[in-house]
Amino acid sequence: MIPTWKAKRELRRLKMQLLQWHWILFGGLLRRLYDRRRARLVKVHDGAQPVRDRIAVTLCFQPRGILPTFLAELDHFVASGFSPVVVSNLPLAPQDRDALLARSLMVIERPNYGYDFGGYREGILCLLERGLRPESLILKNDSVWFPIWPDSDLLARCMADEHDLFGIFLNAHGRKHRQTHLQSYFYRFGGRLVASPEFERYWRGLLMTNNKHAVVRQCETRLTGWFRDRGFSVGQAFDAQAMRAAMRSLGDAELLDVIRYQVRVETRLEKDLRPLIDDPGAPDWRSRIEALIDAGRFRNYHMIAHPHILFGALRSSLLKKDRQLIYQIQRQEIRDRGYDARMLAVFRDEIGGWDGG
């Protein structure tokens, strides 16, 4: 039987698919109309941070006020040599604006139009219009907490990577090569790409839509291939192969935790995993699990992985904020397995109270 949360999610997705056609058909016209009104709709404030060769465009949509973890994120970018550009997809309270300005090169207030890609586009256009083309440009949205660990090395890893476009996780789609893409919550663009005419061309011609499914299909799914087809190299921190290797690296006790978790967040695996949960002492227990891993039976979506994989093996510095039940289960598992104990206190406190807020 399909869980209620999953049935509701699929119904929402179908509704979004049915509603996206007019956005795609009239997207160019709607974008031009929006751009004509940009000067009236968008407010740009200069912040206290200087222009650096490294810039991070980071989005926020926080209707209850700026969260302490977002300020901690900006502090981390500054300490790592980045100039943050904050794009808020709603108006800011004066005290929140002041706190952001102290930590930012610019603070941009705009309507919540176009989801994360609309915000990314606004931040990039503001940079281009000021003649700023940094050597490294990070785009990061508000759907994830970052950096949750005191020793996070993600930014150092980004800077060490030599690809023109770098992301956290590469979704591979087998025969559908054009759908293979980096997930959109975190990108890093290198200097060669940012300096190219193709970079500005992509962002100026971006589909502007308030249909979430259309944003995913027409923006997130296409961005990676668009730049790859124009000769730019693509790299990632993790992919499905890395996820399988991480799972294989776990000890038996951790692996048992993982498969118990998997049947809760991925119910289609109940038939395969229930015998392994019920009889962990079977002599061929591990080999049967590894066969399922190698066959690609487990969910390859990076952000919903069990904490033993996400944090223990892969040392990821990001955590999804989504309040869907599967992410609530993940956050409970983080607490049950003690991973929250070594988080930065500001993140531990916020994450601990997230599902009750």
Q: What does this 3D model show about the protein?
A:
By secondary structure, this protein is of the alpha/beta class. It folds into two domains: 21-236, Spore Coat Polysaccharide Biosynthesis Protein SpsA, Chain A, CATH 3.90.550; 240-356, no CATH class. It has helices at 4-19, 21-41, 68-79, 94-101, 115-129, 154-160, 191-195, 197-204, 212-228, 240-248, 252-265, 270-278, 285-294, 307-313, 325-336, 345-352; strands at 43-46, 54-60, 83-88, 106-109, 136-140, 144-145, 165-171, 181-182, 186-190, 234-238, 319-320. Strands 1, 2, 3, 4, 5, 7, 8, 9 and 10 form a nine-stranded mixed beta sheet that branches. Strands 6-11 form a two-stranded antiparallel sheet. Helix 4 links the parallel strand 3 and strand 4. Helix 11 packs antiparallel against helix 12 (270-278).
